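Assemble and predict.
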Amino acid sequence: MTEERSGASILVESLVKQGVEFVFGYPGGAVLPIYDALFGDERLRHILVRHEAGAAHAAEGYARSTGKPGVVLVTSGPGATNAITGIADAFLDSIPLVIITGQVPTGLIGSDAFQEADTVGISRHCTKHNYLVKDPADLAAIVDEAFQIATTGRPGPVLIDIPKDVQIAMATWNDGPIQRHQRYNPRTEGTSEEITRAVEMLANAKAPVFYTGGGVINAGPRATALLRELQAKTGAPVTSTLMGLGAFPADHADWLGMLGMHGTFEANMAMNQADLILCIGARFDDRVTGRLDAFAPNSEKIHIDIDRASINKTVQVDLPIIGDCAVVLDQMLTEWGTRKGQDLTEWKARVDGWRERKSLAYPSNAQAIMPQLAIERLYELTKSKDPVVSTEVGQHQMWAAQYFPFFSPNKWLTSGGLGTMGYGLPAAIGAQCGNPDSLVIDIAGDASIQMNIQELGTATQYRLPVKVFILNNEWMGMVRQWQELTYESRYSNSYSDSLPDFVKLAEAYGWKGIRIENESELDAGIQAMIDHPGPVIVDCLVHKETNCFPMIPSGAAHTDMILYGDTVAGTMDDEAKALV
Amino acid sequence: MMHIQHEAEERHVLTVTVDNEAGILAKIAGLFTARGYNIDSLTVADITDNHAVSRITIVTHGPRSQIDQIHAQLERLVPVHKVVDLTEVGPHVARELALVKVAGVGEKRVEALRIAEVFRARPVDTTTESFIFEMTGAPDKIDSFVALMRDLGLVEVGRTGIVAMARGPEEA
């Protein structure tokens, strides 16, 4: 079928063709033709957010929890600039998004027209690719390529800026398959030499560690299964970055917990003492490596990554393999065959010695709820429902990563690379859209939750039963912790003054509000949250000055962890202060 | 006390073949600024009959590891077809074109013309009191010529930046 259609109509048809179910968006002048094309169209479900940042994060939550690309639709100017934080977030965490932005009509571009912003310019370095569409005849092919780019290779956000006149103008459209440009063909397989060498290195290692990341999740459930299979062949201990949690089951005997700045003692010590590090879909981020010249000094390193630019970016590796995690793991398993690795008894005994430090054991407190305990209870009471958990950013996020175990991929949604406060609530909303029958919980802090609090209204409107569990310590806890540890407790602007009454706020939005003030109410409060069929905010008042440990202070090596019970000096030299 | 540390740096010539689409130059130049890389020179022109493909020559300098990153980051851009690090590939020809305006009379004017001949710089505009010389060559040759003209009435210099190509019969 070939016919004349408007740009807006071609866009909608193209989205439907891509299998899009949800569009997270907010209307405005420069996207009115697209909103008109959406009107009454039952094939796409539009979720009206309350702020465009919420749209981008909701699309991220949808994408991360379903493995499908998230779609955002916002207007020109402020619509686009508000969405930028979420786009940058998706860029750093490799989340596939397609963002449609309206633009002022072609003839007005560059004239400082009403609600004009140089969206293509502004988004250039926080998108994987972007387009300014000048002719509706190009739209179908652009949308097709945008989805291909967003979802293949290293996933990421792709933005399509569409001037208003291009949305209205007509072009010939047909429902046949798109003739694709074929200019984006990322490498997915390792060479046979690479695979042979990797397997030899792994088979000869006496103290190997698997260091896994978000790439394993992005490569799909098959990568997770293959990771577990390869681990079973070798028996190597496994650690993961923040982004990779869930790829390896947290109750496995060889699971070390998360590594890095707030990682476990055993994970960081194993990285430090390993003779071989197999990095799978992680990128040696500064939160992971600590002081670079002291990072894993005695190990050989294999790095599997689909992005060539991630190889040797901060840490030089001995064997890079550019490819998709699932494909390369599959190749390695085939090459491994019936081989036997080295006897790891001695290595595992050393690892057990580090486990003995019980680095996640925290002091108890009779007066106040310890935040770690609150997370542990939240996990115990919800685990039978296999919940999807999102977080905001800060101490609560690290506690969630440490004390809420995950067993499968796509259950853990967090802003790792950009560290965006305000991510969790909209991400939970997006995840709930994609997983209508799941229990979806945003573990939040009292400061972060206020950054996109307006999205409470979105959940109400679409009857999404998301739960927000606030660890309320009346501080921007992580900022306060750094100020305590590195600025002699000068708490500059980190106190959460004038907090709203979260219970009343919940009720004002039509949510249920629950306050938990002491440990005796903790389980009942969590249970009431689970049992309520609609959205709930739990305002859980926790011990105010608890720090998040273990911690590798900035500029320190993996072996210099601060653990619970250590005395910490209140200052730091300038070199360390200058690090992120 | 903290001081900023500097690493040993290398100079590399890269050629980048790209789709000739709107914003591609901004994308590439912006990548350099966004990630803190250096551009010493950048030239660009389309190289196919249908104007669909452009070749960009970039001269950059930085620590070894950064040059490798620049290569990888450029390759990651969707409209980039190919990146060649000519310094890495081996022997290559690097040429630049310069226009050099020199004003003067008498002995200095004669001397300027004589030196221009030695450098094979051609006068492309002449008045009774000035020349514009056009010369092509390796950048250091142009540097030398410009330095000599300084005493002989140099008015202004325009340079294109480098275009470069690997030696031998193959495409790099």
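DSSP finds five helices and nine strands in chain B.
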